[in-house]
Design brief:
L-fuculose-1-phosphate Aldolase, about 650 residues, alpha/beta
Length: about 650
């Protein structure tokens, strides 16, 4: 591990201890092998003047919810040192009380809650304190003779603390151990099965000491040939998409909430899932206790009968809860958050894409550490009761009770065609805003980079080509685990031609895109919709189905056929609880087909101004893509949970339709 300190970068921070703390914290955060997704914490002690002109010693410690990689000055909670030191002398204190009194001791009430390790940072008598969950250090301690190995590496220059619960108990333990020591004799603290601390009055020295000490552990792993190195390779072909969608459905049933699933089939994950004793090594516990909040204690092991394996995991989880639970605790859902699917890869389960990304990082580090520890004598995680204490920490239980209601489409997967503009684009954005993972399909190559919101996957797809459709569905299933909402929207508006002058190409192109492509897409999606969670299909047709106009035969006939297909699909799919409904928009002018020129010509044809033409309906309102998208989302949601085969106009009231 190399120091990332840069003299040119650091120069601007040297005169401000807090800004220097921000800088070196971010340096730690750039190393995922040191900290993962909120793991680890840092602090700096600064004397500040209060409003009375009095000097106070303040600990600026990483605030809850901040990540070291991106932390700013606002992410550090300023807490009075004298209060923290008094708290360290208390014999007993619940973590709930600790959080309350730490917050009461802050000089800025708008700052985030201080880290639960604030007291521990306070009792270390140095200005800068750094704490990480370095993979290699924790890996070595997670072996049968881990303490001996770690002592062999660092000798008597470290303080070795046996594992205890994070928070006040840990702070009190270190306080008791260090009352009579000479701190100058030590370079850091090793928390067995947890992590490592370094400290110094110089910010750079504390940071680089962390790099130096972690590097020693890395070299130890290399020396003992315990480093796992696998070349990254593209995902290999996979022919169990339906089985994977079924697994995701079973997980959601156990969790009693919609869940996404992602299958990682890189060479590293395939190798791990193919280890002969995978059922043993993946079920011993997490890399560090704090990971349990994301991963649960162990992985599920999926074999030839995933349904039985998932049921067994859930039953074992209930037994685990009943064995260690105290009165008043509420059991979390018994569904796994990751699984080793034998010979197929690693599967991740979460309610949103951020969950999946975090789980990807954590499990990648975990599987490497497990295999490294196996080469050192065996992977030995903490006992279940210690992991349970963190998973059901009163602070975590409090967070659950305060958690707000999840977005309406959280954990659901939607696929939208014609997604690069107009109704399709607005629908993608609205579904994502309501929590769905959305796959956006369009023939426009810009679709790949059009959406920046996490959870939207843009794919170039020509929906008239079965191969493109198949590839898009495969990508959807591998990334998100299934399909719950299909918005079949792709379409064109061919040039107006009376039947006697109708060109064969005009007719055929409209039939191909406005009808046949929808049939092919729906046919390919049906097997996955049957395994979906409250599955719904919304077909975007047209007012022309009910009130066609002269010169629009190619368009009107295709949309009428599309509507008829949707009605048949509603009849066929109802027994699988798949809802199929149709929406009939009219004159949605902020779409690609309505150019300024077309709009002016149409308005002139009816002897209207453009504004009059835009509101040419009974309610005298303009219909926008967002209006249509809002109705589509409503039709895909709970309001329409008991409706199928319906045709809903959104046109401001068209007298011909009425």
């Amino acid at each position: 591990m190399k120091s990332l300190w840069n003299d040119k970068e650091a120069k601007q921070y040297l005169s401000d201890p807090l800004q220097l703390r921000v800088y070196t914290s971010q340096l730690l955060g750039r190393e995922p092998d040191l900290v993962l997704h909120g793991g680890g914490n840092t602090s700096v002690k600064i004397n500040v003047s209060n409003i009375f002109g009095e000097t106070e010693a303040i600990l600026y410690v990483k605030g809850s919810g901040w990540d070291l990689a991106t932390i700013q000055a606002a992410g550090f909670a300023p807490v009075k040192m004298d209060v923290l030191l008094k708290m360290a002398r208390l014999k007993e204190l619940t973590d709930t009380e600790m959080v309350k009194w730490q917050r009461a001791a802050m000089i800025d009430p708008s700052a985030p809650n201080p880290s639960v390790e604030a007291i521990l940072h306070a009792i270390i008598p140095y200005k800068f304190v750094d704490h990480t969950h370095a993979d290699c250090v924790v890996t070595i301690t997670n072996t049968p003779d881990g303490e001996k190995r770690i002592r062999d590496i660092y000798g008597d220059r470290m303080i070795y603390v046996p594992y205890v619960m994070p928070g006040f108990i840990l702070a009190r333990k270190v306080f008791e151990m260090t009352q009579k020591i000479d701190w100058k004799k030590y370079d850091g603290i090793i928390l067995l099965n947890h992590g490592i601390f370094t400290f110094d009055d110089d910010g750079r020295e504390s940071y680089e000491r962390m790099i130096h000490l972690v590097s020693k552990a890395e070299r130890y792993l290399h020396k003992h040939k315990a480093v796992i190195s696998v070349k990254k390779t593209p995902q290999s072909s996979f022919n169990k998409l339906l089985e994977f969608a079924s697994i995701r459905q079973l997980i959601a049933q156990k969790a009693k909430t919609p869940m996404l699933a992602r299958l990682n089939r890189s060479q590293e994950q395939l190798n791990f899932a193919s280890i002969s004793n995978i059922s043993s090594i993946a079920t011993r516990g997490p890399l560090t206790p704090d990971h349990v909040i994301r991963t649960k204690r162990i992985a599920a092991i999926l074999g030839k009968t995933p349904q039985n394996d998932i049921a067994k995991f859930a039953e074992d989880y209930r037994k685990y809860f009943n064995r260690y639970a105290k009165a008043g605790m509420t059991m979390l859902d018994p569904a796994p958050r990751w699984a080793a699917w034998k010979n197929e890869g690693v599967v991740l389960f979460g309610t949103n894409v951020s969950d999946l990304e975090i789980l990807t990082d954590i499990t990648n580090h975990t599987i490497r550490s497990i295999q490294s520890a196996e080469r050192l004598g065996g992977w030995t995680a903490l006992p279940p009761e210690d992991i349970f204490d963190v998973e059901y920490w009163d602070l975590e239980q409090a967070k659950l009770k305060k958690a707000g209601k999840a977005p309406s489409f959280a954990g659901k997967v939607a696929l939208v065609t014609g997604a690069a503009s107009g109704i399709g684009k607005a629908t993608v954005e609205m579904l994502a805003a309501q929590g769905a993972a959305v796959v956006a399909l369009d023939i426009n190559p810009q679709i790949k980079n059009m959406f920046t919101k996490k959870g939207i996957l843009g794919i170039v797809c020509d929906v008239t080509k079965e191969k493109d459709i198949a590839m898009a569905i495969q990508t959807t299933i591998l990334n998100f685990g299934g399909l719950d909402i299909l918005v079949s929207n792709a379409g064109i508006f061919p040039p107006g031609e009376h039947i006697e002058n109708l060109k064969a190409d005009t007719w055929q192109k409209s039939i191909d895109i406005n009808l046949t492509s929808h049939e092919r897409l729906l046919k390919a999606c049906i097997p996955y919709l049957k395994l979906g969670l409250d599955p719904a299909v919304v077909i975007v047709a047209s007012k022309n189905v009910l009130a066609p106009g002269p010169g629009a035969a190619a368009y009107s006939v295709a949309k009428a056929g599309l509507t008829q297909m949707a009605r048949v699909a509603a009849l066929e799919l109802a027994s699988y609880n798949v809802r199929v409904n149709v929406i009939h928009p009219n004159q949605v002018f902020d779409t690609a087909i309505w150019t300024d020129e077309v709009l002016k010509n149409r308005a002139a044809h009816y002897k209207m101004t453009v504004e009059e033409y835009k509101t040419n309906n009974l309610l005298k309102v303009e219909i926008t893509s967002k209006d249509v998208a809002s109705l589509i989302c409503t039709m895909a949601g709970q309001v329409f949970a008991k409706t199928t085969g319906a045709q809903i106009p959104i046109d401001g009231g068209n007298d011909r339709v009425i």
